[in-house]
Amino acid sequence: MNRNSLNVSWVLLYFYAGIAVIFTLLPVLMIFSFAFNSAPYLAFPPQGFSVQWFAAFFQEPTWIKAAVRSLEIAVATTIVSVICGTLAAFAAVRKKMRYGNTISIFLLFPMIGPHITFAIGIFGIFSRLNLTGTTIGLVLAHSAMAVPFVYINVASRLSTFDASLERAAQSLGASQVQCFLRITAPIIAPAIIAGGVFAFIISWDEFIITYLVADFSTQTLPLRFFSGIQYGVDVTAAAAAVLVLFALARGIALYRLTTIWIIRGKRG
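The structure assignment produced for this chain is given below.
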């Protein structure tokens, strides 16, 4: 293959990649046009520029309550998922557990299995344990979905971690706790942060499990979205969706800045 043919191949590759990105982002861009539209209904093209729907979001107590509830559950889910996922990764990678590969498959099932099947199973168990309609039940259900993302990030980092660094620290008198805090944790911190960001996003956006487990008193933002469009189109939902997208973008940016800071700190 000559150089001209290679250049044409790369141009076509970038062209198709650009089409795929546009096709994926087009629904998101449409949300922005709806949120800043002055019309009292979803209309495209926009009939004018207005921020009235953002004002309506902050003036409606049900939206604020749902957003705060989602934030509380997402933060709690992140903490539980990071702890459980990190411990599971250490057990699977460091301890070389018997049937470790089989256990890993079961840990990853919520991520690769049918979502609705997992949600129905969660509902069946939690209804018997009287956990439906409770904040604890939602946190546990969301954590079951989020733990695999923490596990796979931390396990992949631990698999390439040089354990001789810990042995060298222990030979110099450091305890296991000191080794973890000063050696292991700073090195695997980007993987833990990445898993935590994924856990937060999953809990923040989760609808199917929340729909089965929650009730009106534990209504989250996705459920409020659903109720806003179930019996009509509430344009405030478009403004709320834009705010959610900004929150997710800030979370991803924070993760990126944190990893850069950790890497620069290690080099310094």
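Interim note for the steering committee: The longest helix spans residues 3-35. The mean pLDDT is 80.
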